[in-house]
Every structure is written in C-alpha cells, then in structure tokens.
C-alpha cells in the first residue's frame, strides 16, 4: 500500500527520515514483520514493543510507528512519532484493509455477562435465515462454518481489522463482535465502524484491571461513544432497561435507542416467562405487537439475551416473525448452561459463569424445576480479580451443595484461591478441592438421582492453565466417565 496514504490517517507528531513509496504489510509483533513492512510499537503489560525495533528492522521493516524516539538509521528506516500507538494501529489497519467494516453491518456486544450468548443467538438466527455472517469473541472467530481460534475475547486492533476484512471478502453482510472492556480501553476496536451497539449488563468483574465499577462502566461506554455522530448513517443503540447503567450509556450517543427488558417497561419486553428443564417460553411485546416465543435456551437470563438479540436484528431490518421462528430453532450456545445429553438419572449442565451475577443467574435458572439437590461446582482463576472470590462463593451458596475449585489456577496456589472463595460461603455444605479433575469427580460422587449438577467456570474451554502450561481438560468428559462408573450403563451418552 502507498505509505503516504496509509500514514495520512494518523495524527502525526513528527516524521523522521524518508518515507518509502510503498509498505508491504503491517505488524505489531517483530516476529511477523515482512521485508518492506511497517512495524507499530505497542507498550504492553509484559514488554514494550519499542524494545523490538531492531529485530523488526533486521526482518526488513522500512517504517516504524512509535510513541517515543527509537534508535534507527534515518537513511534506511522512517520513523513516525505519534501520541498513542495502540490507537494508531487500529486506524492504520482499517486503512490497510480498506475500511472493511463499512461494507457490512457491524454489531458490537458489550456487558459483563451475555456477550457470547447474545452474539451466538444473532449469528444462529442470521445463519438460519440464510444470511452470510460472521462472529468473533470468547469462543473464537466463526466464519462460514469454520471456527478459528482467538487469543482474546476482543482481539488486538490488527487482528480485529483482518478478521473483519476476511469476513467482508468472504461475502458476509453482517459481523457480530464481542466487545470487552479491556479491548475498548486498549483501543483494540479503533477503526471498527459499528452500526449497532448492544449493552447487556454491568456487574462485578475485572476490578483487578479497572479498579472501580465506575471505571469499568466508563470503559464499556466507549463502545457507545465510538458510534460517532454521523447522522447520515442508520445506527442503533440497544440497551437493557433492567440495568441502571443503561441510562449513563444513553448520554454517550444521539442515535435511536431500542430498549429491552423483563422487569421494566421496554420496546422489547419479555413477560409470562415459563422456565422448564427443556426450555423457556415467554410473550414478546415489541413495536410490531405481541408474539409467543418458545426456545430451547434455559433460564430467565436467556430471555434477556434473546430480547437483546431480537432488538438488534429488528434494528437491522429483520421481520420479528422470522426472528421468533429461528429463536426456537437454536439448540444451545456452547458451554453456556449447555445440557449434557445423557440417559443419566440426573441432569448435568456445563456453564461459563465466573462472575458473581452470572453464578446467581445460572443457579436460579434451574431452581423452578429442581426436584432434589442442586450441586454447583465453581472455580475461579489464579492471578486475577481476587475481590470477587468471596462474592462468587456467597452467590454459589444458593445451591444445596457447593464444590469450590479452580478454573485456570495459573501460578497461584490452590490454597489461597480456595481460602478466599470459602470466606463467602453462607452454609457448611461444601467441599474445597483445588484439583479441578478431582472436584468434578467429587461432585458426581455425591450426586443422587434427580439431582442437578452445574459445572461452572470452564464453559466451552477444553483446557486448564496450570502454571503457564495448557493441559487438556473437559468437565463433561470427566463427569460422564465418573457417572458411568457410579450409575452403570444408564449413564451412556444418548
Ligand atoms: C493484560 C492484557 O490485556 N494483555 C494483552 C496484551 O498482552 P501484553 O500487554 O502482555 O503484550 P506484550 O507481550 O507485553 O507485548 C507488547 C507488544 O510487544 C510486541 N512484541 C512482543 C514480543 C516480541 O518478541 N516482539 C514484539 O514485537 C507484541 O506483539 C505486542 O505488540 O496484548 C495481547 C495482544 O493483543 C493480548 O493477547 C493480551 O491479552 C491477554 C492474553 C489477556 O489475558 N488479556 C485479558 C486480560 C483480556 O484482555 N481479556 C478480555 C476479556 C475479558 C472478559 O472476560 O470479558 C479480552 O478481550 O480477551
Ligand atoms: N444476560 C446475562 N446476565 C447474567 N448472566 C448471564 C447472562 N447471560 C449469560 N449469563 C451467565 O454468564 C455466563 C457467561 O455467559 P456469556 O459467555 O454469554 O457471557 P460473556 O459476556 O461473553 O462472558 P465472557 O466475557 O467471560 O466470555 C453464562 O454461562 C451464564 O452463566
């Protein structure tokens, strides 16, 4: 690409050296620089990209974008100084890929819980309606039936733009992105032009990163400011009328707002909710009238998620009849209150709850049809938000029996994680077992017919990070094998 055109998108402080006519590629990692390319130095949490300039130059970098002076030969390498390289990379990547988000409807979903589920519902409905669409988030980057692995819920700016470009090139007319607060703060979404921004909820999580709920909420609000103020565009904001933070978000944008909710009046409201082990039914009141909705997704929180997805798809121009029909066809969202299909005399769910509110929602979603004990296995990550640990256990105490364990212990000792969780327990019916494999086995060992067992915290993940090594791990596999031993052939998978 023409170098001059590429850097024209940047607020430049200084250009040092002679700019080449063209740059071949863009990179934020010195290990992936190609000859004639541009290397953008990012100050990370672990290392500083500015320290890798020489490596980038050795690999052929011809232009360096930096936020502080770097030592290179100005006759061979041009240096562009900018204030903030994390934002610069988004702008450069969008230009490099020729603004791929302009070619499609870009939907951003933010909030503490429900991002993956809402994105998954939107993606499933669009696919069922025959529309080519893509989605990216915690589970990966899903494009035309292929699931690519992703490192983060919201990828770095270069990865984000390249995924949007790939989706556009493969003919997708819509792409849904899970937007994390970390991603917003770190400018990973710079250059992404959203058409619809969805807010699910704001509850306790990630305070190790944000410090206060106020900062955390303000981080989420960046998605709504990022919609811009270009009123020649049809853009929409979808917010949860049941969450007090929604009001604050509305100050950030002047685009039309669609509200959804269960408790409070909203444009898309769910009432007459009936929760069963097989699924959920409710009445959807919408700007187009009332509809009876039947879905396989369980739990009241999934009514909220379904309403958010419905409002967004309506904003996009889809008929509510079609949305409701396809909602009923969705079987499950991977690892989100996903029932393990067996002939067992008990019910097993795999879930991803790892915040206090999600734990409460996961547990209360099954209470209406609980016949015997509810056993809840909950782990939390090592070297991450410690403040939430006792609150997680406090919420888990709603269950009859709780197994406190770890999800990704990383470099933290089991003992400290478990002790900090246990502080919050409200009753004595619990066990502390740091090794998650043993914790899963224990949960099945105490289970009886008609019990419900929820394994929370690992969801779709098929690994556990212990130290800095990823070991294969599957709650469902361990639980099934243990149940097979305990309940005999009745435990065979359906
Ligand atoms: C704390 C955090 O946000 N870390 C993210 C960050 O890593 P980092 O700051 O450690 O990066 P770094 O290793 O210091 O590297 C800095 C720069 O030097 C470059 N470098 C590095 C080495 C080298 O040899 N050459 C070189 O050029 C790197 O390419 C990079 O550009 O940048 C990486 C690349 O974008 C991210 O993958 C990484 O996410 C880590 C894995 C992470 O766990 N992040 C969490 C906190 C997070 O972001 N979570 C949210 C979801 C939250 C939710 O549950 O809702 C998410 O969006 O994933
Ligand atoms: N709307 C909701 N409100 C509260 N809890 C929810 C909601 N939707 C899902 N949950 C719970 O939170 C867990 C995580 O859901 P989901 O993956 O959709 O959220 P997320 O925002 O993508 O989370 P993460 O960023 O950690 O991936 C689910 O397994 C469920 O227990």
UniProtKB/TrEMBL annotation:
<feature type="modified residue" description="N6-carboxylysine">
    <location>
        <position position="220"/>
    </location>
</feature>
<feature type="binding site">
    <location>
        <position position="152"/>
    </location>
    <ligand>
        <name>UDP-N-acetyl-alpha-D-muramoyl-L-alanyl-D-glutamate</name>
    </ligand>
</feature>
<dbReference type="InterPro" id="IPR036615">
    <property type="entry name" value="Mur_ligase_C_dom_sf"/>
</dbReference>
<feature type="binding site">
    <location>
        <begin position="111"/>
        <end position="117"/>
    </location>
    <ligand>
        <name>ATP</name>
    </ligand>
</feature>
<feature type="binding site">
    <location>
        <position position="180"/>
    </location>
    <ligand>
        <name>UDP-N-acetyl-alpha-D-muramoyl-L-alanyl-D-glutamate</name>
    </ligand>
</feature>
<keyword id="KW-0132">Cell division</keyword>
<keyword id="KW-0131">Cell cycle</keyword>
<keyword id="KW-0547">Nucleotide-binding</keyword>
<comment type="function">
    <text>Catalyzes the addition of an amino acid to the nucleotide precursor UDP-N-acetylmuramoyl-L-alanyl-D-glutamate (UMAG) in the biosynthesis of bacterial cell-wall peptidoglycan.</text>
</comment>
<keyword id="KW-0133">Cell shape</keyword>
<keyword id="KW-0963">Cytoplasm</keyword>
<dbReference type="Pfam" id="PF02875">
    <property type="entry name" value="Mur_ligase_C"/>
</dbReference>
<keyword id="KW-0961">Cell wall biogenesis/degradation</keyword>
<protein>
    <recommendedName>
        <fullName>UDP-N-acetylmuramyl-tripeptide synthetase</fullName>
        <ecNumber>6.3.2.-</ecNumber>
    </recommendedName>
</protein>
<feature type="domain" description="Mur ligase C-terminal">
    <location>
        <begin position="335"/>
        <end position="459"/>
    </location>
</feature>
<feature type="binding site">
    <location>
        <position position="30"/>
    </location>
    <ligand>
        <name>UDP-N-acetyl-alpha-D-muramoyl-L-alanyl-D-glutamate</name>
    </ligand>
</feature>
<dbReference type="InterPro" id="IPR035911">
    <property type="entry name" value="MurE/MurF_N"/>
</dbReference>
<keyword id="KW-0460">Magnesium</keyword>
<dbReference type="Pfam" id="PF01225">
    <property type="entry name" value="Mur_ligase"/>
</dbReference>
<dbReference type="InterPro" id="IPR005761">
    <property type="entry name" value="UDP-N-AcMur-Glu-dNH2Pim_ligase"/>
</dbReference>
<feature type="binding site">
    <location>
        <begin position="153"/>
        <end position="154"/>
    </location>
    <ligand>
        <name>UDP-N-acetyl-alpha-D-muramoyl-L-alanyl-D-glutamate</name>
    </ligand>
</feature>
<dbReference type="InterPro" id="IPR000713">
    <property type="entry name" value="Mur_ligase_N"/>
</dbReference>
<comment type="pathway">
    <text>Cell wall biogenesis; peptidoglycan biosynthesis.</text>
</comment>
<keyword id="KW-0573">Peptidoglycan synthesis</keyword>
<comment type="similarity">
    <text>Belongs to the MurCDEF family. MurE subfamily.</text>
</comment>
<feature type="domain" description="Mur ligase central">
    <location>
        <begin position="109"/>
        <end position="312"/>
    </location>
</feature>
<dbReference type="InterPro" id="IPR004101">
    <property type="entry name" value="Mur_ligase_C"/>
</dbReference>
<feature type="binding site">
    <location>
        <position position="188"/>
    </location>
    <ligand>
        <name>UDP-N-acetyl-alpha-D-muramoyl-L-alanyl-D-glutamate</name>
    </ligand>
</feature>
<dbReference type="InterPro" id="IPR036565">
    <property type="entry name" value="Mur-like_cat_sf"/>
</dbReference>
<dbReference type="InterPro" id="IPR018109">
    <property type="entry name" value="Folylpolyglutamate_synth_CS"/>
</dbReference>
<keyword id="KW-0436">Ligase</keyword>
<dbReference type="Pfam" id="PF08245">
    <property type="entry name" value="Mur_ligase_M"/>
</dbReference>
<keyword id="KW-0067">ATP-binding</keyword>
<dbReference type="GO" id="GO:0008765">
    <property type="term" value="F:UDP-N-acetylmuramoylalanyl-D-glutamate-2,6-diaminopimelate ligase activity"/>
</dbReference>
<dbReference type="InterPro" id="IPR013221">
    <property type="entry name" value="Mur_ligase_cen"/>
</dbReference>
<feature type="domain" description="Mur ligase N-terminal catalytic">
    <location>
        <begin position="24"/>
        <end position="95"/>
    </location>
</feature>
């Amino acid at each position: 690409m023409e170098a001059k055109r590429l850097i024209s998108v940047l607020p430049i402080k200084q250009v040092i050296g002679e700019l080449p006519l063209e740059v071949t590629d863009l990179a934020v990692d010195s290990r992936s620089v190609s000859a004639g390319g541009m290397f953008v130095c990012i100050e990370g949490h672990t290392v500083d990209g500015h320290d890798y300039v020489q490596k980038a130059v050795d690999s052929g970098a011809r232009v360096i974008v930096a936020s502080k002076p770097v030592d290179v030969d100005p006759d061979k390498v041009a240096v562009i100084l900018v204030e903030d390289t994390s934002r610069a990379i988004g702008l450069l990547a969008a230009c490099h890929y020729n603004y791929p988000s302009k070619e499609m409807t870009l939907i951003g979903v933010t909030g503490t819980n429900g991002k993956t589920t809402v994105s998954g519902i939107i993606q499933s409905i669009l696919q069922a309606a025959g529309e080519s669409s893509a989605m990216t988030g915690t589970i990966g980057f899903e494009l035309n039936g292929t699931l690519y692995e992703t490192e983060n819920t919201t990828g770095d700016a270069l990865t984000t733009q390249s995924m949007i470009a790939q989706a556009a090139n493969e003919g997708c007319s819509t792409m849904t992105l899970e937007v994390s607060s970390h991603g917003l703060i770190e400018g990973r979404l710079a250059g992404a032009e959203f058409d619809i921004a969805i807010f699910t909820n704001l509850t306790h999580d990630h305070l190790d990163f944000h410090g206060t709920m106020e900062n955390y909420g303000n981080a989420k609000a960046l998605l709504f400011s990022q919609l811009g103020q270009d009123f020649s565009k049809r853009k929409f904001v979808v917010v949860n009328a049941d969450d007090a933070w929604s009001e604050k978000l509305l100050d950030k944008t002047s685009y039309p707002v669609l509200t959804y909710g269960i408790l409070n009046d909203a444009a898309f409201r769910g009432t007459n909710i009936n929760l069963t082990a097989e699924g959920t039914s409710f009445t959807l009141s919408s700007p187009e009238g009332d509809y009876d909705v039947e879905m396989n997704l369980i739990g009241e929180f999934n009514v909220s998620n379904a309403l958010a997805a419905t409002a967004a798809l309506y904003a996009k121009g889809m008929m509510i009849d079609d949305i409701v029909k396809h909602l009923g066809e969705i079987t499950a969202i991977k690892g989100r209150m996903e029932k393990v299909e067996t002939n067992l005399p008990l019910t097993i769910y795999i879930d991803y709850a790892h915040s206090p509110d999600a734990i409460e929602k996961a547990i209360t979603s099954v209470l209406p049809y609980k016949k015997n004990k509810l056993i809840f296995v909950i782990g939390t990550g090592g070297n991450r938000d410690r403040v939430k640990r006792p609150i997680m256990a406090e919420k888990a105490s709603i269950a009859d029996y709780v197994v406190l364990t770890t999800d990704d212990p990383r470099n933290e000792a089991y003992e400290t994680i478990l002790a900090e969780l246990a502080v919050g327990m409200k009753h004595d019916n619990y066990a502390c077992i740091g090794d998650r494999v043993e914790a899963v086995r224990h949960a099945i060992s105490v289970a009886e017919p008609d019990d419900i067992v929820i394994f929370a915290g690992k969801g779709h993940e098929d690994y556990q990070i212990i130290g800095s090594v990823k070991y294969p791990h599957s709650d469902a596999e361990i639980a099934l094998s243990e149940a097979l031993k305990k309940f005999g052939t009745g435990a065979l998978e359906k």
